[in-house]
């Protein structure tokens, strides 16, 4: 399913979804295809997001696109 379809089905609310297809440009991941798992209440959105792993996300349908910023992990070294 495309994000635009999900936005029409669940206007102005959080939904839990699985990313099925995405592509990376520069330092961002653009989500192309999703599977909706369920709508999520505002009170439960943060909890559901923190429990999510792998390709699962909680996202609000007020956003026009799903774009995830990719952060590189920087290893810190301790100097003795």
In short:
By secondary structure, the protein is of the alpha+beta class. It has helices at residues 3-9, 45-51, and strands at residues 14-25, 28-40, 56-60, 67-69.
How would you describe this protein?
- The chain has 80 residues and is of the alpha+beta class.
- The protein has one domain (3-69).
- It has 2 helices and 4 strands.
- The protein has a 4-stranded antiparallel beta sheet with strand order 3-1-2-4.
- The mean pLDDT is 91.
Anisotropy-based shape: globular
What is the subunit organization of this protein? single chain
Question: How many β strands by DSSP?
Answer: 4
* String of helices and strands: HEEHEE
* Helical coverage, percent range: 10-25%
Strand line-up across the major sheet: 3-1-2-4
Instruction: Enumerate how many helices there are, as a single number.
Output: 2
Strand content: 35-45%
Instruction: Tell me the number of structural domains.
Output: 1
Distance between the termini: 53 Å
* Spans where pLDDT lies below 50 across 5 or more residues: none
**Major sheet:** 4 strands, antiparallel
Mean pLDDT: 91
Q: What class would the helix/strand composition place it in? A: alpha+beta
- Our Rg estimate from Cα atoms comes to 15 Å
